[in-house]
Amino acid sequence: MAGEKSSLMKIGIGDALTVVDVRNDFLPGGSLAVPGGDEITEGLNHYVAAFSIRSLPVFATRDWHPLRHCSFREQGGPWPSRCVAGTVDAAFAPGLRLPASVPVVSRDTTVEKDAYSGFAGTDLDAQLHAASGRRVFVGGLATDYCVLNTVNADLAKGFETFLLEDAVRAVDVSDGDGARALAQMRARGTWPVTREVIDA
Length: 200
Hints:
single chain; alpha/beta; Rossmann fold; six-stranded parallel sheet; 6 helices; 6 strands; globular
């Protein structure tokens, strides 16, 4: 069975990688720091390189908020001000090595709408189909919010979905949120994988 699983996880034509929201504001010291958020960049770089060397598509999502976004506490929302468009805080983590050719998918670009999925109000679905994507591998921040919602949208749109469990971290607003998100994604049919399986 282990050999069959390793064979299933081999990446090739029809596979795409989505890197979710690895931004300065979500790293230690940021306004909404995800514990250990800086620890996943090395693993994500490994996945990005593995896809890029095979000429497989890689996408990077980001929230790109206007100044008075509805999700900010100052506007009555649940979160601190974060990832304001055009600021250093909204930039991708400095250790994340994304080729210049990687399409950046921006969401949360209007004041009155909040979104957690990389598909919400974006053309990510169209870009995946244009790239002939059938299976999507997802990693990034945070497990219990934007990763969870992006994975759920992948599944709802019919993509076979793989979660890079060694390249995600949870914000855990409530203790155990990350673990519950992982369990939910697995229960809905997401395949959990790590770089060792991909490289096998």
